Amino acid sequence: MTTTGAQFDVVVIGGGPGGYATALYAAAAGLSVAIVERDKVGGTCLHRGCVPAKEFLETASVYRSVRGSAEFGITVGEPTLEFSVSQSRKNAVVDRLFRGLAGLLKGRKVTVLAGNGTLLPGRRVRVTEGVDAGTEIVGRAVVLAAGSVPRTLPGLPVDGRSVVTSDEFLDLDRLPESVAVIGAGAIGCEFASLLSDLGARVTLVEALDAILTGCDADVAAVVHRSFRKRGIEFRLGAQVKGFVPRPTGPGGVLHLAEGPEIETDMVVVSVGRRPRTEGLVAEGTAVVIDERGFVVADRYQRTHEPSVWAVGDVVGGTPQLAHVGFAEAIVAVKCMLGEPVVPVDYDRVPWAIYCHPEVAFAGLTEDQAKARGLEVVVKKDPFGGNSRAQILGDTEGLVKVVAEKAPDGGAGRIVGVHMVGPWVTEQLGAGYLAVNWEATAAEVAQFIQPHPSLSETFGETVLALTGRGLHLG
Ligand SMILES: Cc1cc2nc3c(=O)[nH]c(=O)nc-3n(C[C@H](O)[C@H](O)[C@H](O)COP(=O)(O)OP(=O)(O)OC[C@H]3O[C@@H](n4cnc5c(N)ncnc54)[C@H](O)[C@@H]3O)c2cc1C
């Protein structure tokens, strides 16, 4: 039991990736640490985000493999899906990881307090509404890591049945026959992909004129083509007007500003996430919350209040990714310890989208590089020519490398690596290193890729950038 007034080197509010990484890294450095968590350590990522979503995408992948097994001479009947079993498996995976994390925190002697944390002046943190409600502790440093929650749309009230966000979607134990997914960003495309692979009729509704607008256009085009081939319908440039539920049963009619309405069993709203800053900071501190509700922090994760840091999704203007939260946590702790620290370079963080085909990239897209006035040299190599991809029977996709033009007109420093295709989320490492090491195409081209492997496509693309590819011109 933690007593009121107890002092810690670091008090963290929020136990998601940003918060628990702060706690683990600070504890590894010998600091005393407390986390205040209103729900379960692991946060969105473990309980309502990355892990459960990827688990269901794996279910979709197994389903696809079974359906395609005849190509390998393995004949099975038409597979059937019992989604409640997938749901139980997902829960078991999440639970194992949760228990592992809780054990890790305990092993590092991190105190976990259950309840809502509010920062008060003087780096005091008051706990309300949980088992530890009423406790007040003090940190020599405080880290705000309260994360984010799904955004919703006006005229589209979430009822958990016909209209859901990612939170409810990941807890379903029966899949609807038809779904309209609103938002064609990373999460929307992951959901559309898995739903379609598992047999649902999917319409992807997006206000912009394209899907995956944060990705390189060539990569997004491959995903768009693949989705279309698999029967996903698109309503791009479409504004949602409202939803009229069916008088009985789930589902209803989704109205758009233009074009025909969509009759659907379920609407999944995936239009981004907003910071969870309600009640996070009391009056009397200098912490600044911007007009959109995000905590304002500098490149070293410092807020305007001395010795109060902020990391993860709660910080505005940075990619909402678990591994960005991890990296920011390390920056904050090193900063507290007065150690030399390199802030996160948000232009060069790795991105991974686990739809089918997968997407992974780091650095500038071709368009971004040009918009910044860089003269670029670009090479693209499709996976179709890759022997491992042929063996897998999964040849959709390509690797694209964007390099700055060198003074001799050839390829110089690599500024962006973009991949779409089989297992690219596991292949990005080399591209990520190339971009962040500011390596030139000639330097990276010296490295050998194993044969036969999917990574040869990256190697070949870089070799071709030097002007002499083996297979690629
Ligand atoms: C469907 C989906 C899929 C995703 N897939 C990926 C992916 O593949 N890769 C990736 O990198 N990212 C992914 N993300 C994003 C990722 O989940 C987030 O970027 C990450 O969880 C942010 O970590 P965080 O610690 O900042 O916040 P969160 O994970 O949101 O954690 C914040 C924690 O703080 C707690 N909390 C909030 N306020 C208080 C308070 N006042 N007092 C006490 N506790 C509080 C919350 O209960 C929560 O546990 C996905 C997200 C979703 C929704």
Label this structure with key terms.
Enolase-like, domain 1, binds flavin-adenine dinucleotide, globular, FAD/NAD(P)-binding domain, 22 strands, five-stranded parallel β-sheet, alpha/beta, 473 residues, single chain, 30% helix
What do you see in this structure?
About 30% of the residues lie in helices and about 25% in strands. By secondary structure, the protein is of the alpha/beta class. It folds into 3 domains: about 5-150 and about 275-345, FAD/NAD(P)-binding domain, CATH 3.50.50.60; about 165-270, FAD/NAD(P)-binding domain (3-Layer(bba) Sandwich), CATH 3.50.50.60; about 355-465, 2-Layer Sandwich (Enolase-like, domain 1), CATH 3.30.390. Strands 1, 2, 3, 4, 5, 6 and 17 form a 7-stranded mixed β-sheet that branches. It has a 5-stranded parallel β-sheet with strand order 8-15-9-10-11. Strands 18-19-22-21-20 form a 5-stranded antiparallel β-sheet, sandwiched between helices. About 45% of the residues are buried. The mean pLDDT is about 95. The chain binds flavin-adenine dinucleotide. Flavin-adenine dinucleotide binds next to α1, β2, α2, α3 and β4.
